[in-house]
Design brief:
The chain is of the alpha+beta class and 228 residues long. The protein is 23% helix and 44% strand. It contains 5 helices and 12 strands.
Amino acid sequence: MVSAGKVFKLREELDLSTAATKLSGYRKEEPFKEEQASFNLITEIHSLAFREDGSLSGVLSKDMVFHVLHHGNLVPVPKTLEAPFVFTKRGDSLLLFVVDKKERANNVANLLSEILFITAGGIVEARIDPNVLRNFHERNIEGTKVVFFEDVDIPNISKLSLYGQSLSNTSLYLDYLTHGKIWYAVMTSKKYGYIVGLTRTAIVTIFGNIGLPEFMAYVADEIFPLIS
């Protein structure tokens, strides 16, 4: 089982009480009609609540239409997709973590931005400095399994990668560091024991069984401090 999510950052100042007021009760219905099928597609926010640590969590629920084959015909069928999210104040920044795959997480962030700031762009991708990502995975260097490098200065090579046990102890790893910047790493968290994939755009993947509360707690504890 794999759990995925992405961290974003708010460009504008916003207190969580105001955010809760703007998000509370959000609901939008759009009619869908195709041949004999007719129904409403609903997008709404539910389960909005303040957590013990002061963060604000909720779930964005959105209906999508999928077409399934039924006796030779493609029939539209509505399906509800849900993406849990949490806003957390960290220092002077307000961070957003959306539990979903990259593309859908981006869509959730844009919609939340439109609700909070009327337009997209109020919520942007978070960034992790390449040196910070390097230091993070080297805390448990023996547990690093995969490293991707980008911005490579070798002609006609755009990316480099290394796979294997204890690969960071190799001279090749040190050589690659002189040619490019770490973009993605798969490592074992020394504190939690989770196998974690992390990009510099703060896409977080946990490889293994983990509950939603544990996933959110891990990201808040180990990933949020890495954000530029």
